Amino acid sequence: MPDPVMSGPMTSPRFSRYLVIDFEATCCDRGTVPRHQMEIIEIGAVMVDATDFHIEDEFQSFMRPVRHPVLTDFCTSLTSIAQQDVDAAPSFNRFVSAFKPWLDGYDDFAFCSWGDYDYRQLHQDCEFHGIPCPITATHLNVKRLFSERSATRKKIGLAEAIRKVGLDFTGTQHRGIDDARNIARLLPFVFAESCPTASVTGRRS
User: Fold this and answer.
1) Hey, where are the domains in the chain?
2) Which residues, at least 6 apart from 150, have a Cβ–Cβ distance to it below 8 Å?
3) What is the value of pTM for the model shown?
4) pLDDT one-digit tens code per residue, 177-195
5) Which CATH class for the 17-194 domain?
6) The predicted structure's pLDDT at residue 153
């Protein structure tokens, strides 16, 4: 497998930490769950130290949807999240009440996600429930930054990006916490100037 082509150091703002988040949401391949009615059903969040890219802490929770409380077969197949997982989960408001204290334990971080979807979905849910967004940090689109660093205009998926740097995807795809952990593994390839010893050619684990 050829090494990925990585360009020079990025010029993104310097942060002490990176908050990597991946959301899973209600969905349907037949259009029964419109985009504007999708709701978060899982959050996977990892707090990453920007100096050496190790994961300091993690937060994971399921959430109970209210617009489309019964998950579609497509959604359960895609995410492996079962109906009983969301039935027993806290409401969105209760999730935020638990997430905010965890988040308040850290400062000077950027909110990172694979694409802009997670940022938009969080704001959509907060607006629907009439509560302030718990994250006010700068948002960084790691998917776009990775494409710029690897000198490709192609929209690349997370699993493909992991392969591109010579790693193997760990965990289950389309599960919030596993996707967040794998996005975190790509940060050295995006923000190499923050970790001079980080490999930019990839090393298979």
Assistant:
1) 17-194
2) 4, 5, 6, 7, 156, 164, 189
3) 0.88
4) 999 999 999 999 999 763 3
5) alpha beta
6) 79
Question: CB neighbours of 83 closer than 8 A, spacing ≥ 6?
Answer: 70, 71, 76
Q: What is the pLDDT of residues 109-126, one digit of tens each?
A: 999 999 999 999 999 999
Please report, as a single letter, which amino acid is at residue 164. Answer: K
Q: Which residue has the tokens 């969905």?
A: 27
Which letter does DSSP use for residue 80 in this model?
Answer: -
Quick one: pLDDT band at residue 155, thresholds 50, 70, 90?
Answer: confident
SS3 call for 89: coil
CA distance 190 to 200: 9
CA atoms within 13 A on the CB side of 184: 27
Supply φ then ψ for residue 161, to 5 degrees.
-65, -40
